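Subject line: Sequence and fold of a protein, written as structure tokens
Enclosed: The protein record, placed directly beneath this head.
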Amino acid sequence: MSTLTLELLDGRNVERLEGIVSLVAEEATGQFGLLPGHEALITALQPGLVRCRLSDGSWRHLACSGGVLLCRNNLVQLVSARFLSAEHHEQLTAQLENRLQRERSDRTTDQQARVELERALIKRLREWSEARRL
């Protein structure tokens, strides 16, 4: 039986899934599916979910921030700013929640660092201004 191979590429990871019998993704015009032997295709993906059914009957669930999908000769390449991958949608949900918490924490840390930097700059400007008056 012919199958698809999916290569997931983002700025941090490369993941390869083999033995895919069908893939469902979404572009601006709606959802579409790919089967082995599909004609060559290039499309812009919407942020969202991609589902892959494997030859053993299991599913692989992916979340991506949008990107480009290329399909040729049963090789599907998905290039995205970021993606997450899991066997079960519950695992994917947990990964997304963890990532959101980390990003919120990182933003809070960044905001605190900016506030401290601004305070230090204001203090230095006041010191400089007072020194010039003398």
In short: Strands lie at 4-9, 14-27, 30-34, 41-45, 48-54, 59-64, 67-72, 75-79, 83-86. Helices lie at 89-133. The chain has a mean pLDDT of 87. The longest strand covers residues 14-27.
